[in-house]
């Protein structure tokens, strides 16, 4: 870590004893555990323009959520902006991602129990009252499609213009909007003591279409009926149709 960053970081976290690069890294960032006198922090650093913007959003979302205390997420401590990078500081949370927990699970029963718990956490999120500071004026899906178009034009996505045109022409009928995570894969929730307890990577948390979360959530076991029914034992809300799943998981998600 460069000297300048270290100085700024110390102002937020105090004397630093050790820095551990985490085994599990994300796709948009570099994550390190910072051990200090006061405890343990997570330093999440991004370097590319698109991901730096997401990181700043994540900081704003965490700050607002910490004030409302209704959704389980890490505690926000600060953001540091440097010339070529941005750095978010939050609480280091014990636990492993659901993706790792599922890989480590010894048997089907354990896996189903984890997936049920994931369904329940997402159910609670979608049933949470709208947090006004995260509410929006414009339709979430319309805004996502505009963002996707900007990414296509600036070459910041693998999604194609043809796919985008299809998504614009075939929007699903709208549904009541709820609080959503916005990138609700098994990589972005943490498991502690056999339960899915906490959302991480919350840059996209806002008021939007719950079918997006649901589709991304079931994506890694969508062809396994047993796992899918375990999910819906916890997620006692609307079930996405195959068409909706395709629209969100294989369509919209391609651009993000
Ligand atoms: N607050 C936290 N406490 C502990 N580990 C975390 C925390 N936030 C993220 N991680 C770890 O860092 C990894 C990457 O974080 P994530 O926010 O998902 O980054 P990306 O946006 O690059 O996907 C996660 O998979 C998780 O293992
Ligand atoms: Mg992630």
Automatic annotation (TrEMBL):
Entry's Gene Ontology molecular function annotations: transferase activity
A Pfam family per the record: APH
Domain Aminoglycoside phosphotransferase, residue spans: 25-236
Keywords in alphabetical order: Transferase
Name used for this protein in its record: Aminoglycoside phosphotransferase family protein
Gene source species: Chengkuizengella marina
